Amino acid sequence: MRGHREWRPDGPISGRRGLLPIHIERLSWIPAYDVEPLVSIETKRNLARYAIENHVLLVFEHHPEIKAGYLHPTERPDRFRLEPVEM
Which pTM was predicted? Predict the structure, then answer.
């Protein structure tokens, strides 16, 4: 297990800043200080796949406008579309 992030189907994803909508919509958008960017991309891919398949409500506590939403696939395999919901 890596110390700077963790995700599993029965638990949260965590990190220094938390997950922002743009970071889950675009797999390749990762922080510049990430020491294992390929692991981060694969972790985000797994999270996105799980969220889409299980219709998971994603919560973004650090975003000023988008508080939560559902993820949907797009034509591009490295991008997703977030459908915001009111909370």
Answer: 0.71
In a domain, 5, yes or no: no
Parent domain of 72: 27-85
pLDDT in tens, the chain (87 residues): 444 444 455 555 544 445 677 777 888 888 888 898 898 889 888 989 999 999 999 888 777 788 888 999 999 988 999 999 987
Q: Using CA of residue 81, residue 55, residue 61, residue 2, what is the dihedral sign?
A: negative
- Please name the residue that has the structure tokens 């998971």: 56
Both tokens of residue 41?
């991309």
Question: Amino acid identity of 46?
Answer: N
Q: How far apart are CA 69 and CA 60, in angstroms?
A: 8
17 and 24 in contact (C-beta within 8 Å)? no
How many domains does one find in the chain?
1
